[in-house]
Input
Amino acid sequence: MSQPKQFKVVGTRPIRPDGVDKVTGRANFGADYSLPGMLYGRVARSPHAHARIKRIDVAAALAQDGVHAVITGADFPRVGSEEITGGEGGGDYADLARNVMAREKVLYHGHAVAAVAAVSPAAAERAIAAIAVEYEVLPPVMDIETAMAPGATLLDEHLFTQGLPEKPQSPSNVAQVMQIKRGDVEQGFAQADVIVEEEFRTPTVHQGYIEPHACLATINEGGQATVWCSTQGHFDVRSSSAKVLGMNVSDIRVVPSEIGGGFGGKTTIYLEPLAILLSRKSGRAVKMTMNRDEVFRASGPASATLSRIKIGAKQDGTITAMYAWLAYEAGAFKGSPMMPGAMCVFAPYDTPNFLIEGYDVLVNKPKVAAYRAPGAPQSMYACESLLDELSRKLAMDPIDLRLKNAVKEGSQAAYGPKFNAIGFRDCLTAAKNHPNYKRPLGKDEGRGVAAGFWFNAGMQSSAEVHINEDGTVTVIEGNPDIGGSRASMALMAAEELGVPYDRVRVQVADTESAGYTNVTGGSRVTFATGMAVIEAARDIIRQLKQRAAATWGIEADMVDWEDGKVIPKPGVNADLKPLTLANIAATSARTGGPLLGRASLNARGAGPGFSVNLADVKVDRDTGKVDVLRFTAIQDAGKAIHPSYVEGQMQGGAAQGLGWALNEEYCYDANGVMENAGFLDYRMPVASDLPMIDTQIIEVPNPTHPYGVRGVGETPIVAPLAAAANAVRDAIGIRITTLPLSPPRVLEALDGAA
Amino acid sequence: MTKLHIETEINGQPVEFLCEPAQSLLETLREELNLTGTKEGCSTGDCGACSVLLNGRLVCSCLVLAPEVQGVPVTTIEGIAEPNRLHPIQQKFLEHAALQCGICTPGLIVATKALLDETPDPSEEEIRYWLAGNLCRCTGYDKIIRAVQDAARTMRGEAA
Output
């Protein structure tokens, strides 16, 4: 963009179009739908982390009053291996089929082994208890080192590591290895004046959306199904359910409900094919919901990781070499976010020599799902923590160290392409100048700095802009609104059409009413679907100009579009009165029929998102508890369409990242059973844990978006982990290299140093 | 199993329903009475999404048995707004963008009403501790706290 665009409504903060329904309880979420005669479905789950299924007896369950159907793995078709595309997480449909319902083996505690449909939730619960499963229990493999050790118990005897130069001789729990490199890393380290090296660990954590997975499904005798569900991508629910059940895509209609949080965790399926199958067997509609215990044990959390990082630098701070060894737990099936984690780890820095190695490792935990910038928080926590140590060794300000090595427009990203216009240096400078960076600290208080990065995605989107009979506007799109995106779409349509914001309403339509659209994920909606809305608006403007010109009896190139009106070009036809949207809409039947603008596209050029966070903490030396005193999130949004919701993403990501840093973790016993599968013991931040979260939006326009938008949803969770860890290091003088920095762990470190 | 016949008042209206003795108030509201504005997040009293008022007192409806509301008036999110007019708490949640996904919002609004009905001028710390039983995973709470502060000002009759 040559010069900053001047906006009329974009950048304002109106009330979201779906707001009233959400503050009055009217909005329908996944569990809020019902149909007459509906049954309630429940899932029987494995009590073992790793076992072979010898036999399943469902007769006693089926014989109970009120039980209409029971399904097991035997009711599902065999699904061949095929890569899942279009979603946000990696994976294979054959694995997905086995994840929604176990076949020969159960691979984690909570793995589905059967499901029932009954007349009430209580009747379904009783039926589940009556299902008898005989298991041959196998040793659970619960961490990366155990899984990678020679002779380890195997989850899948047919899994051979991919990505090696030659096919290995024997199977392994390592599904895939990868490498990215540039220059000569050994030579780079030889040139360094200072070398730092450390090993870091992060635990399994959950996205923690407050709405459990839920759906309602019905299928008729002709095999046509309708599913209402809470999902980030109803087109993916359709395609995945079709694969798992061997159905045609055209025979499944998916209606997305409002979605009560997802953060990547609702980009896959769990209940939907079960509900369809139970509906087919029972002839009734079937509603299924997970309880919180099931959400923790049986939906996809984020990978635990083990990272080894080494960085070499000159005395002036110039980085000469970087090395990363990154292992990600995939859970029960291959497909951790190893690849994006590896591509992000050194992305903010320009270094001639680096080597990154990644490992995708199976363990007996639920198959991981995407979680906000999947893979990046873990690897960048490790790198940004080690950079903090480097700045201490060099006695250099941590922001100056980053500025010294920061990528800029034209830099070759570690993951391949050359950066276009990016705002990393702007974020660093803003952090350096922020008043919160200069506030004095008290006793046992510390300050941490860290940077964050996420690529952001484009992908496929469709949109329609309808001009209604009265000149008001309806936008139809296909991305479930997870955090205010209807408002962003309405703002962009209003900006383009030159009409007031409240004349534009946005509908998120089902799979048969909206054009194909990829998931609400990858921070892509405001960027890519926004681009589709803008293009659809431009499409209708072209038509409106033609209609007006035809009305006037002049050529279409003799008119202009200005402020929501068609006007004659300056200098000619000056006697013609401008035609508004309402004027043209009122006569549309006579000028060619309904007014409908459309766009469908595969958006390229998503602008990378950078952030810098400042965390101030106070450590209680008696209890090990870490209190966050202040938190400052600075991020390049390209262009903030609705600044309140951009700030909201930054604040929410900060809170989630702080939870990851300070308290959240899956705790397992020796049998691979999660011990804290509830919100009381899986301790997410509550209101009294946090201060106000200060935000500063930087706007370096993304040149490939008409308004300069870059995605903002995922970057915010990346930097808080290291920002908090670096602040704790600053407060207590000890580097703790395992997250979370929970009171027992901090106390142990303090006691060890005493 | 014999169902119990319960008479009570919900959102100012007399209501009768049948329930099993062990059925939660949450399940009864949602599945029997179609009052689905009250949300289920955990069913263990840890998230506050199912917050309702019993006789004006804030409770998690997942921890209340349906038969317990015999003769005890219940207020749910559906009873907070007046016909065609939002309550100031609802209005301020919208103006401050204090919701993203919106699943925790009904519970937070009910909990905020319980706070402000008793404590018209709470400190930030009082608000944070009162709402500590209502999990929000999207917002980081910042805009929620500001919305509650602003709603309190409005309800006290002060200019924003």
Summary: Chain A touches chain B through 61 residues (CB under 8 Å). Chain A has a mean pLDDT of 97.
